[in-house]
Fold this sequence. Notes:
mainly alpha
Amino acid sequence: MNPAQNIIQKLGGPTVVASAVGIHRTRVSNWQRPRAKGGTGGLIPQGHHLRLIEFAASKGVTLTGNDFLPSRAPEVMP
Length: 78
């Protein structure tokens, strides 16, 4: 799961997240879309990180900076 999907799911969905950061729900949904399809490739714009961490804390959900980073694919040994 990409960071945006994980965070959006933890916080209750695109509508809840959009309300928390003050943007339209479709913009939040675009965070989950691939870049080739007009999305952000699973990344949440940095300007929203602190607000989402604060919102999560108010709901009893723990988010850290690491939650916003994509996971690295395991390296394949030759």
